[in-house]
Design brief:
Elements lengths: L8 H13 L2 H6 L5 E4 L5 E3 H18 L3 E3 L11 E9 L1 H6 L5 E8 L2 E9 L4 E6 L5 E2 L2 E2 L12 E4 L12 H12 L4 E3 L4 H10 L4 E4 L4 H13 L3 E3 L13 E4 L3 H13 L15
Parallel strand pairs: 3-4, 10-11, 10-12
Antiparallel strand pairs: 1-2, 4-5, 5-6, 6-7, 7-8, 8-9, 12-14, 13-14
Helix pairs in contact: 1-3, 5-8, 6-7
Cofactor: Mg(2+)
InterPro entries: Inositol_monoP_metal-BS, Inositol_monophosphatase-like
GO molecular function: inositol monophosphate 1-phosphatase activity; metal ion binding
Length: about 280
């Protein structure tokens, strides 16, 4: 069994990149694929999701001897030991409609902590990769570390939502936060792809991103990329992001603090981190 102490992050990053490169043509060819598995009224998986997950999972497990937890077929617990987390088609609605804001996400978790991430955006001919010790690699080349940034001079990505929905992060409160942010940021953007939002934050295209999704396969790759670039990744309560978190907020130094201040001003402690939601972690 692979242990954290034996991990060679540069080697794993190289191997994982080769695996993702091997499926790029199939990803591009499937653009516009219709729903194959309905999950909800607006959430579904295409046949490309299913086929790529099987292929990537098998090759990664064989070449790295590390198990994979995928969006479509599951896998081992994401908060124990060493495990890959995979989203073969992130931004599925975008992908199905032909919008290029979509990609392949792959992260490596060690006891729930994001250590390595890859976000391949084949329709943009972009590859983002890195491990938490840095640097962020863009198309294989080291990128500059993120410089301190202010909300007033940056674009911030915000996760899509329905204002009439309830739940942990009720839609009307998400609307309250975006209303407050609109008066503080240079621009707001809603791409429909968590992978794009977090990779663009790591690369400094966006100053930060607010994501309300809880799935590790969506959030772990980007959390690792942002940290590799020198940025900050927490949940909505300000706790450093882990696989059991129910949200993720990322940002450049300085800007992340401003984002959290705005969220706190609007919702107070409504979205504060509860120990039971983080599996006992403080």
């Amino acid at each position: 069994m692979t242990s954290a102490s034996t991990l060679d992050f540069p080697r794993l990053l190289h191997t994982a990149g080769q695996v993702l490169d091997s499926v790029v043509d199939e990803f591009v060819a499937g653009l516009g694929a219709p729903s194959a598995v309905a999950k909800s009224a607006t959430d579904f998986a295409t046949q490309v999701d299913l086929d790529l997950e099987r292929r990537i999972t098998a090759e990664l497990a064989d070449r790295t001897q590390i198990a994979v937890h995928g969006e479509e077929f599951g896998g081992p617990p994401v908060d124990e030991g060493v495990v890959w987390v995979l989203d073969p088609v992130d931004g599925t609605y975008n992908y199905s409609t032909g919008m290029p804001l979509t990609g392949i996400l792959l992260g490596l978790l060690v006891d729930g902590a994001p250590t390595l991430g890859l976000t391949w955006l084949p329709l943009q001919h972009r590859r983002y990769a890195g491990h938490v010790d840095g640097p962020l690699l863009v198309d294989g080349r080291p990128a500059d570390r993120l410089a301190p940034t202010e909300l007033s001079s940056a674009a911030v990505a915000y996760g899509p939502f329905n204002a009439s929905h309830g739940g942990r992060y009720a839609g009307h409160r998400r609307a309250d936060v975006i209303r407050a942010l609109s008066a503080r940021v240079a621009r707001l953007r809603m791409t429909g792809s968590t992978g794009v939002d977090l990779a663009y934050t790591a690369a400094g295209i966006f100053g930060g991103a607010v994501v309300f999704g809880r799935h590790a396969w969506d959030n772990a790759p980007g959390a690792a990329l942002v940290r590799a670039a020198g940025g900050v990744a927490t949940d909505l309560g300000g706790t450093p992001w882990r696989a059991t978190a129910t949200s993720i907020v990322t940002g450049a130094p300085g800007l992340h603090d401003e984002l959290m201040d705005v969220i706190g001003e609007v919702v107070g402690d409504e979205w504060s981190t509860r120990p039971t939601e983080l599996g006992g972690h403080p």
